[in-house]
Structure formats: C-alpha cells, structure tokens
Amino acid sequence: MSKTDVAPFWRKPLTEMTQGEWESLCDGCGRCCLVKLEDEDTGKVHFTSVGCRLLRSEDCRCADYPKRQKKVPDCIKLTPDVVMSVSWLPPTCAYRLVADGKDLPDWHPLISGSRDTVHTAGISAKGRITANEDDVPEDELVDFIVGWPTRWPAKAKLKPTAKPAVKRGKDGLPGKA
Ligand code: SF4
Ligand code: SF4
C-alpha cells in the first residue's frame, strides 16, 4: 500500500479519533463561540453576534482554551455524543460535516494548510463579532440575533464532497465502516 492509499483521519468515525485528531478537526471559525439564545416556546436556537467573553475577535480563537470550562462554565465541550445530539452546530462545522459523512471543504486548515483560509473564505466570525458578552445586558441580547452562523456563505462556493455514507450504530453514532 502506498502512502496515497491511506485515508485521512477525518474520514473515520468521530468516535475513533485520537485527542490530537479531534482537536485539529476544529477549523477555528468561532461560530459556536457566539452567544446563543433559545426560544422558550419553540426550542429554536438563535445565534447572536455577541462573542463569548474568551473569544478573541482578531482570530476567533479561545483566549484560554485549556481553562475554558473553569472560566466559562457554560462552555460546551464537544464530544461525539454532543455533536450527534445538538441541533445548533453550524452547517460549516467540521464535526458536523464529518458526522454527516461529508468530506472537509478546501478552506479547512487541514486541507489548505493555513489557518487563514477559514477567514478569507468568509466562514469565520472574524469581523462579525459586534460585542463581548460582558458588555451586553442579558435582556438586550435579543437585539444582536443574526442568521449568518446557520448558513453556508455564498462566497465559500466549494461545498464538501459527499463520501460514502458512514454506517451508524443503533445509538446513532457513527459505527465502523
Ligand atoms: S463551529 Fe465547529 S469548526 Fe467552528 S469553531 Fe466551533 S467547533 Fe470549531
Ligand atoms: S470559553 Fe472559549 S471555547 Fe468556550 S465558548 Fe468561550 S471562546 Fe469558545
């Protein structure tokens, strides 16, 4: 078998990834780090343009990733179970793409080799974070609701290529192909 025959790690189920592989799958878009509001009546989750207090607006990275859950108790740690159960992960999120059996798009850092392409392709929250959560009273968050985090930007023309469907176990998690 030649080197080119080895499938990239993101084509295996999320549950089989090493910690390093899992972490590198995040494209650094920062969309999931925007404050979200849940409609009490419908359960629908709305994104706002307000960033988590640790979200750096210049590069959309977490200012203290190792200690994030101590500093921001409601920061949700993504796991395969969480990826499969939450409805609000953005359509561009690499975890969601892989869970749905799709390939990574060209702007993903693992494909492009650069962390910048997630910004230049118009995927990230860079330039669109209008406030920090520490500066916005809770009852005013509704004024910051935006729709773009739930959409695939028109600028990012290259949609992920479908790959053979990932088999799923009875628990709904990807199973071994
Ligand atoms: S939305 Fe997904 S890819 Fe983007 S920062 Fe969050 S976890 Fe990473
Ligand atoms: S604590 Fe860090 S990882 Fe968690 S939501 Fe805030 S910026 Fe994102």
Structure explained in plain terms:
This protein is of the alpha+beta class and 177 residues long. The protein has one domain. Helix content is 18%, strand content 9%. The chain has six helices and four strands; from the N terminus they run αββαααααββ. Strands 1, 2, 3 and 4 form a four-stranded mixed sheet that branches. β1 (34-38) and β2 (45-51) form a beta hairpin. The longest helix has 7 residues, at 19-25. It starts with 18 loop residues before the first helix and ends in a 31-residue tail after the last strand. Mean pLDDT is 88; it is low at 162-177. One iron/sulfur cluster binds at residues 26-32, 78, 90, 93-95.
Helix content: 10-25%
Mean pLDDT: 88
Low-confidence stretches: 162-177
Distance between the termini: 19 Å
Element-level helix/strand string = HEEHHHHHEE
Structural class: alpha+beta
Task: List the ligand species.
Answer: iron/sulfur cluster
**Would you count the extended β strands for me?**
4
Shape: globular
Report the radius of gyration as a whole number of Å: 17 Å
Main beta sheet:
4 strands, mixed
Strand content: 5-15%
Count of discrete domains: 1
Query: Helical stretch count?
Result: 6
